[in-house]
Structure formats: C-alpha cells, structure tokens
Amino acid sequence: MLTPGSAPDRAWRVFGTGLSFAVFGIGGVIMSLTIFPLLRATSFDPETTRRRIQRAMQLSFRLFLWFMAKMTVVTHEVHGAEKLEHAGGRLIVANHPSLIDVVLIIAQMPAVDCIVKQALWRNPFLRWPVRWGGYIPNTTPERLIEDCAATLRAGRSLLVFPEGTRTDPGEPMVFKRGAAQVALAAGSDIVPITIHCSTQALTKDDVWWRVPVRAGHWVLRVEDPIPIAPFQEAPPGLAARRLTQHLHDYFTTRVPPLERRFRREAAV
Amino acid sequence: MPGLELTPASMRTEQEIFDKIKATLVDLFEIDAAKIVPEASLYQDLDIDSIDAIDLILQLKSYTGRKIDPEQFKHVRTVKDLVGAVQQLLAEPPPTT
After folding, report:
1. Complex ipTM, two decimals?
2. Mutation site, B24, B27, B28, B51, interface A, largest A CB count within 10 A
3. In the 8-state DSSP scheme, what is residue A223?
4. pTM: predicted TM-score of the whole model, two decimal places
C-alpha cells in the first residue's frame, strides 16, 4: 500500500487514471460491437431494447467505478439512493463538477435517459447504441426541450445538468434555463443530486495526468424531490426564470464552491 | 363599434410599439424595465433565449393581429430591431379572415 499523497502514490494514480481512460474508451468500443448489438438482437420491441441497453449502461458503469476504486483513482459514496427508486417521470438534476458525474449517476439508476451530444449520432461505434438506448440528441433548443418533456411524460426519468457543462472552478455556478423549461413543459417534479468531491479532480481546469495530491472521493446526495406545481402558476418564461433561480440557490447553498486547484496548491 | 374608436393598428407610433414591447417583457419575464432601452440586445443584455422568443412572438401576434412568420424575426438582435419588425408587420394589411 502506497502512502497516500506520496510521490509513488501519485505516479501510480497518473498511471491508473490513464489506464481508466483507456479502459473507458476501449470498453465503449467493445460493448458497441458486442453487448449492445446482442441486446438489440434479443428484442424487436424498442421499449425493451431501451430498457436493456440502459441497464447494461448502469452495470458497465458500476464495473468501471469498481475498477477505478481498485486502482485508487476514484472512490465514491452515495446517500439517499433509495430516493431514485421512484424517479419515473421525474427530472434528475445535478451540479456538474467533474468528468465522471454522469458515470456516477447512471451507475445508480437501472433506467435513465440522458442528453447526448449530437455528434455521437454520427460516431461509427456509438451511433446505434445511442439510438437503441433512447438517448436524446441535443438538436435545436426548441426540439430538445420537447423531446425531453416527451420522455418524462412517458413516465421515464431524465438526467440533466442545468449548468450545461462542467462548473468553472473559481467561478459561481451558472445555471441555464433549459432544465427548468423541461420540468415545466412536462409538469415533472425534480429530484436533485448534489455532487461534491473531497479534492478537486477531473474538473474543467484539470488535465487527467495532473492528479490531485490525494485521490478524489466523490459524495453524491440524492435529495427530496422539489415539487413543480408551485412554479407552474406563473407564465412559462417567468416560471422558468424563478425555477432556475431556485435550483441555483438550492445547489449553491449545499455544494461548496470549486476553487482553482492548481493556484491553491502552488501556494502549499 | 362606433364611439369606441381605437387608433388603427397601422397608425401606432414607434413609441407606442416600444412601450408595448417593454410592458410585455416586464410582464412575461420580469425583466428590469430600466434595462429595456432601444439599443439593448435581447439575447445578451436582456437574457431572452430562443424559448422565450417563442412566447414573445405569440404575445406580439395577439398585439398586432397579424400572422407572424418567425423568419421575419430572424435578424432581430436589439429591442430597436424588434420595434422595427413589429412596425413592418403592422404596415401589412390585416388578415381578412
């Protein structure tokens, strides 16, 4: 066992992080050529295929998290996971500090829809799995909001990061209105998940080979749902603004701000 | 209805249109009225996004009584552009139906 924070430990984690990235990329390609087409082949019902693909996503992300924990690169704990058992028809929103947030959340949910970069619909390996999984491409804002609301109305759950991208370390969180617009359009309650990492790792500022002094430990807290009804009384544009402000305050009061890690460590 | 003569839509002045747009922006989005000046950019200064724009256009549709083709609003960037676009709409003959 290497002493946490020592040079050998850090060197090991640089290796472990690189290997994790490779496993993720290669694993994705292998699954796209094996498990996903197999799951697709076992059913002609798109709904069944979607459920199976999403379940395979959960299990593979769990395996990936187990691998990263073994490599001492990323560890995590989840509080309130049982609140996700009734997430059908609800919008899951989370703050977005790090690169692995989506992995951490999908690993908790046997079925959840996500918004996926439209470019992946042309990716040679992932173009079919993203379709089979029922994931939602980020097309035009109007269409995206309608697609997201439709999946919630159909009783599925959907994960959205209201920030739209990872948090800028050293800056206050900026919430876009899209998540609120989706919840309002579908009349869905919102399940918040706060994500906090013990040290700053895999943030927007980080490059993977500059590992933190101590390995990052991620803590996810699934909170009680935020009812949508009180927000629906206002006209839509106003309601979206109020709900976005509410979510912003909700996360800002519960999640410590990200600082600029390298600047701070340089002073140590 | 005689005796209840309102200003015909086509006669509305730029100032009236501006005031109407300003009131609409305040009502729909609670935008600070002081920020609504002709030069203000709808997207950057007033934080109107494309979804808001749809609501806004719906409101303008009932105000002008004209069918609105979203294409007509494509070039709109500032409040002044919007006033101009509405003025142009009002210059068109009202629908006969």
Report:
1. 0.75
2. B51
3. P
4. 0.88
- Alpha-carbon distance of B59 to B14, in angstroms, equals 17
**Distance (Å, whole) CA A192 – CA A94:** 6
The closest alpha carbon to A29, from A114, A113, A169, A125, belongs to A125
**If you write DSSP's letter for every residue of A63-99 in order, what string do you get?**
HHHHHHHHTTSEEEEEE-GGGGTT-TT-EEEE---ST
Residue A261: is its pLDDT beyond 70?
A: no
Burial of B49 (0-12, 13-18, 19+ CB in 10 A): middle
Per-residue tokens: A52: 């199976």
Strand partners, A78: A220
**What would the two tokens of residue A95 be?**
């703050």
Q: How many angstroms separate the CA atoms of A199 and A213, rounded?
A: 8
Q: Are A196 and A219 in contact (CB under 8 A)?
A: yes
Calpha distance A192→A223 (Å, rounded) = 5
Please report the pLDDT score of residue B33 as a whole number: 94
Cβ-nearest to B29 among A141, A181, A241 = A241
Q: Do A237 and B50 touch (CB under 8 A)?
A: no
- CB-based contact (8 Å) between A54 and chain B? no
How far is residue B56's CA from residue A153's CA, in Å, rounded to a whole number?
Answer: 25
